[in-house]
From TrEMBL:
The keyword Membrane applies. This protein catalyzes the committed step to the synthesis of the acidic phospholipids. Signal peptide: none annotated. It is an enzyme of class 2 (transferase). It catalyses: a CDP-1,2-diacyl-sn-glycerol + sn-glycerol 3-phosphate = a 1,2-diacyl-sn-glycero-3-phospho-(1'-sn-glycero-3'-phosphate) + CMP + H(+). Belongs to the CDP-alcohol phosphatidyltransferase class-I family. Its EC number is 2.7.8.5. The lineage of its organism: Bacteria, Bacillati, Bacillota, Clostridia, Eubacteriales. It comes from Caloramator quimbayensis. This is CDP-diacylglycerol--glycerol-3-phosphate 3-phosphatidyltransferase. One of its GO terms (molecular function) is CDP-diacylglycerol-glycerol-3-phosphate 3-phosphatidyltransferase activity.
């Protein structure tokens, strides 16, 4: 297992750690769980950077990395909605988008094709992290940024869908 894939594995392992801390009764559990979330974000940046810089990109890494991101993103959204920090409805568009992306990814993987991350998806991810960060300090502003993130995620989804259809038609 190379370093980028190990960092992706760590991100998967941080998901239950996030949940345990988030729902614990300890002091500052919300703040501490957000630190775990941002550590996961740092591992996401590092694994991509290391994989590209040192030519350590693997097929399994290109599949597991976005999957770890999706699980972490959805976990955070579900947890925040559960405690009424964000509106419950906002979880569902993200959930639908991610489910379709996973199903499409599995479909392409059967043909040994992978839909790589693109600029739109990365922008949506960065906006997601910023909006969650803002929720710590200003719930209203963080929520509005999350709405902007949703718009960005939908635009990214449309872009991924176009690429998916192009790849599918070439099979």
């Amino acid at each position: 297992m190379n370093v980028p894939n190990f960092l992706t594995l760590i991100r998967f392992l941080l998901i239950p750690v996030f949940c345990i801390i988030y729902f614990s009764n300890m002091n500052y559990s919300f703040f501490l769980s957000m630190i775990i979330f941002f550590i996961a974000g740092i591992t996401d940046l590092l694994d991509g950077y290391i994989a590209r810089k040192y030519d350590l990109v693997t097929k399994i890494g290109t599949v597991l990395d976005p999957l770890a991101d999706k699980f972490m993103t959805l976990t955070v959204l579900f947890c925040l909605a559960y405690k009424d920090i964000i509106p419950h409805w906002i979880v569902f568009p993200f959930l639908i988008k991610e489910l379709i992306m996973v199903i499409g990814g599995i479909n392409l993987y059967k043909y040994e094709r992978v839909l790589p991350a693109n600029h739109y998806g990365k922008t949506a991810t960065i906006l997601f992290y910023i909006s969650i960060f803002m929720l710590i300090f200003n719930k209203t502003l963080g929520t509005y940024l999350l709405y902007l993130t949703l718009v960005s995620a939908v635009l990214a989804f449309v872009n991924y869908l176009k690429h998916f259809l192009n790849i599918k038609s070439s099979l």
